[in-house]
Design a protein that fits this description.
alpha/beta; Rossmann fold; five-stranded parallel β-sheet; 5 strands
């Protein structure tokens, strides 16, 4: 599984996951093909084109996009949703917890093709 982290996540998360041997990019990485502030539809289209699984907290916008893709007969490499409740943005420990949970997900390598999951904290 290859991930594309949405813009709400720090590029350091992608860097840490790459250091652990995973193929992960961030929408915020310098040199990434997406411009800053790209629409959710553009992020999902880029992920689809590159066969990457987006990781986002933006369920409200991505769920309808995902449904429209599938209704159109298109496919995607899966979607991973997080929540501010599981990974609070204001908590200094969040970055480490998110890296840990995504690392565990990537090691488990579930087949998410045309599906989605809500990521849970690995520490309980």
């Amino acid at each position: 599984m290859r991930l594309l982290l949405d813009e709400m996540y720090a590029p350091a998360i992608a860097a840490e996951l790459r250091a652990r041997g995973h193929d992960v990019i961030s929408a915020n990485d310098a040199g990434h093909a997406l411009p800053t502030g790209a629409s959710d539809a553009d992020v999902l289209a880029a992920a689809q084109r590159d066969e990457r699984t987006p990781v986002t907290e933006n369920v409200r916008d991505y769920r309808p996009l995902e449904s429209a893709l599938l209704a159109d007969g298109s496919h995607h490499a899966g979607l991973v949703y997080t929540t501010n409740r599981q990974f609070p943005r204001g908590d200094p420990a969040t970055m480490g917890r998110l890296v840990h949970a995504l690392d565990a997900l990537l090691r488990a390598a579930p087949d998410l093709r045309d599906g989605s999951i809500f990521l849970m904290r690995a520490d309980g």
